[in-house]
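User: Sequence for DRTGG domain-containing protein below. Tokens please.
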Amino acid sequence: MKIGKIASEINGKIVCSGDMADEEITSVCAFDMMSDVLAYVRDQNALITGLVNPQVVRTAVMVDIVCIVFVCGKKPTEDMIKLAENYHIVFVTTDLDTYETAGRLYAAGLKGGC
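Assistant: Structure tokens for DRTGG domain-containing protein:
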């Protein structure tokens, strides 16, 4: 599923690296603890999280995540946006909570798992 379609499915908005909206995403995971991302993420290339700090971007870089979805109306800072653009990571924001976001993406056909 393309990142643009992900944003549409969750009533989200792409806030950085929009030039990558056509990037294909094949799986997604949801974590708030970045230590869990490092421990469990294997083949996911999108992350759903409520955590908003630069460590999210740094962790995503380490495990090749190319899209971060921020839930509950949380917005990344300008510093985070600059960091993400340096690494070509797309940010999507949504007002939905983690459960609803994951459920909609699962129903739309994205797989998950660790």
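Residues 3-107 form a domain with the Udp-n-acetylmuramoylalanyl-d-glutamate--2,6- Diaminopimelate Ligase; Chain: A, domain 1 fold (CATH 3.40.1390.20).
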